[in-house]
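Convert to structure. Protein one:
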Amino acid sequence: MKPDTLPAMPPSLGRGTVRRIPRYCIEDAAQEAWAAHLAGADVKAAVWRYVRQIQRRRKRVVCFSQLDPKTFRRIRNRTAAQ
């Protein structure tokens, strides 16, 4: 799939909703949408539940480039001692 091309979404999901889904999780959100559509569940709620879950996970995961050198050293020393 081309990077510009959006995956096929179920017809019960509106264009406005699709536009607001972050690009980094659009393919997985499409899978969630189709699973909800085929199960007869609320597609919009399923997609936003998935997007919020991914956003919470991304907030929890700390990138090492965001850490100050002192904290990074402490983590490195802690893992080396184990």
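Protein two, convert as well:
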Amino acid sequence: MELAEFYEIEGLRRQAIISGNSELADQYSYELYQKTCHLPHLVFLNSFAMPEVLQTHISQSLINDIALIHPDETHQEVDQAENFYRSYVERLLNVDLSKVEILRAAGNFKHAEGRAVTCRATDHLVILPPRGEEYVSPDLLIHELGHTAEYTLRRASNDIEMLRSHLLFSEAIAHFCQYKYMVEFGTRTERLHALASVTKNHMLLRALRAHRELRDQPANFQVSRIIDHEYLDVYRAAYTKDRIEWLLEDYEGRSFIELYFTEAEPRMGAVLALQVMHNGAAIRELCLMKTNQPVREMLDNLNLKTEELMDFTQADALFRKFVEGTI
């Protein structure tokens, strides 16, 4: 497959999104996946971090603090011109995002927290909900712009081997931008609320571990089978059973492999982001790395302290520093 062919399909997808045709856009996304999923230089051989990520530790006290935050306390609508947030990420990662379009999508695109979509080298999209339907907080817009910064940096070389991001590092890059912004401009309550997505993901990790220990393991994720498992004790102490079921219902019936590699592991890039909060140069280098190599090898190539970065048992301490603004 030639890069020009790939970019042409991305351009068609972009047009479909702008016109509000989500079904057609999804068809183009599937076509792009089909054309790249078997390319040998885009296969992530031994590049995941399951043993380390499964050890992610978040304390009962932090989970309790996050559970007590009411969304109304953190309802901070985007209050600046969108170019303010674009410029913030541009300065942070030394990248030109002038061709990135921030789009208030038509009603058939429902992405309450926003979504970044690739298009060619620089014409990426950030899809936001229509005004008035969902509020979009500044840090979530920053997060999605962080994704477009990675896409732009990765594709500057016009190298087909740079098309695919490593999902763990991609989320680390976006969370780096988001958390930098929140330490500079957010309140303690807003930073606590920002961690709600991390605790939901931590809950998923523990639920996946619980499934692994079932005597007659189901083929797919079943909330009812693990809702009373001891691995979810820390969440039952903070949330009602109904609330936990609601938080996990998006995963019902999906395969364990899909949930781990597309949901659980990538979103723990938030931990890596906090590990390198004072090393923007390293984050920028992650944007430029080929990803068909082991995670540890990629970090070693950046001359970082790989063992420290991969110690997910330190997650709670890092999140606490972030909440207090002392990271």
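The longest helix spans residues 167-185. Residues 41-46 have pLDDT under 50 and may be disordered.
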